[in-house]
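Table S2 (text version). Query chain:
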Amino acid sequence: LTSSLSTSSAPGAAAAAAWAARPTRWAKYLTCGVVELMNTFPRHLPLGVCRHVLDFLAYDVATLVDLAAVNIAFRRLCREGRLWEKLDLSNRPLTDGFLWRLLRVAPLQHARGLNLSSLSRPSARLLAGCTKHTSPRLLRRSQESARDLTLEPLAEEAEKLFPTLGVGFSAQDRDAGAAPGAASAPQPDKLRLRLGMGLRLREIDVSNNRVITAEVLCAILSRTRGLANLVMTSADQVVNDEKLPLLTRAMTASGTRLRVLRMGTRTSRTQMQLKNLTRVSDDVCAQFLASVGAAAGMAMREHEGAEADGFFEMRSSGSPKRATRSSSEGLEVLSLYNQTLVSARTIHAITHTPTARTLRELDLSCCSRIADEMIEVVSRALPVLASLDVSNCWKITDAGLRCLRMAPHLSRTLHTLRLSGLNFITGSELSRVARQLHTLAHLTAARVPNVDDETLRELASSLGEAAKSFDFSHCDKITREGASALCLQCPNLESLVLAKCAQLNAEFLQDVAQICDGDAASSGAHEASASGLRRLLRRKDPLASLNHLNLREVRGFDDACLRAILLAKELAIKAGNEDVARLQKLLVGGTTYKSANWDAAEDESDVDLAASAAVGLSDAGMEFLASEPLLADALEVLDLEGHTGVSDRGVLLLVRRADRMRLLRLNGLRSLTNASIEAMLVPAVMPALAELHVAWCAGLTASVVESLKKSRPHLQLSLMKGRKLLPHHQ
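Corresponding structure-token output:
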């Protein structure tokens, strides 16, 4: 059995290395058959064989639960703690019944991470096992089962494992909102310290979870020891004025000292009103962050006391002894994304607590009340800040940027700055920020109307080799010359996003390749600009480190631009550069749309002429892309939307080569037929594919699409623009 599992499914000797490196790629297609085979054995398998099968097939939670039901040996092996360090229940329809089955197998006390993100109740038709014409009686029964997901089994299991912890969080106290514990009852924190036990969860993720309640989360938090990461993004039923005080009590009782806290939301104001929810207010958010900062201050004082004890002991004994560092010294990452009520009191709680000494990443994007004076407070009070996101904080002006660049400590620590959607900042002030922040490597300035070619030249001259990623999407003043200067003077650029820049032409990639190759200046109107750009070239390897290129709805991207990218990378290899990166993300869709490419046309005849001249990518370009290891081997995201020159031939060549492809967008390919989709029916072809877009492809039939859904049930398929057919909500 073990030899057949390890050799029979590998497709040929050439793929033996890949098969050995990633065995779970094929595991999910063998699990059902192996489990049925195990049930037919009259005798128990040897322990070594069971362990080998378990290591080969244990790729998710559901498989472990199924294998534990085979026999006693598998049940004993499935309860090993090494398999449950990360308890991942995300992105799956659950019921409380499945949770009870899971908890009979999974040792919750050994889990280090609990992921409950994007949980959903299973639909009625899925529970009934039907897709059409469900009877009313069966539909009513399945609807009642679908409402059974409350996640209370997790809370009950935590209470059963550690009944003495969290005693102040009984149902009566939670309903009454009283203080935790009575006057005569022992404090939960003292019990935790004396008994030295509790859940070992280091990370809890409940992002996009609409099911979990604050009471269940409090029951888990109050029994958790050593929690470092808490992610509550878009968990609006928990992050509000009514429930946050409960979380504060639970975290205080368990002595939680967070390093990562994410409590933003992606829910719009209209959706909040429809669900009778409200955003967290400024006062409650400030109180919650103050409690988190107080726990961090306690950890710092304990650490300083341990260092002092170690110092005095070293002096008395004469032998060196290093004090043990605290497991969590303070909050390092804080995200308040889209919490629109956050204002001055929250900023005061962040900057006037011990959190300010350790905070490295701060996300205040879409917090519309943040203004220049708050940016001034942040720039003065956070000495180790490395990443700041103030996107869509439209009240920030040049005065706020001036405070950032004048802070002396930020010039040594800040390496990521996101300023998207700030309409009132100028390109000159942005250039000064880049000139004075010497460690800045990642800059995002999308939808900033004052960014132009001169701004790009000054940024490239100031940052130079330190620049790693740029995002200037929706900046309509950027042209071919500015983009070329940016690529030439920033040779270590890894990510470049210039999507939807109306005046930009993708032929700047050809200019960069020609200048690197030492060819003659381009003909026509660009001859003088190319000769001027040649003088700016400092190194012979621009685009060598590029692995992410986003030129969506930028006109002019064709086969020649694709070859220019490869030419620049090949020249870097010839020059002795050993750090040439393989292309991972290529988004060039929409480059032939009239709305994006022909906005400068004066009348309808000019539009028709431009449309006939625009070619885009073709099958020859796809063949070139599939044949080059630097372009196809590591490709994970590919967007070919609107490139009508690509047909089945080009798609098939790419499908057979791109083993790491996760997202493929083929919208608007009129020549695409069923042959391309039929090639994807085999699970071994593009095994990592998770999302496929085939909208506006008239050559596809419904039967082939249904076959694809059955062969790949976890594939997210988009058939119409703006409508996604998910596997469980079709």
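Notes on Table S2: The first strand starts at residue 86 and ends at 88. The mean pLDDT is 78.
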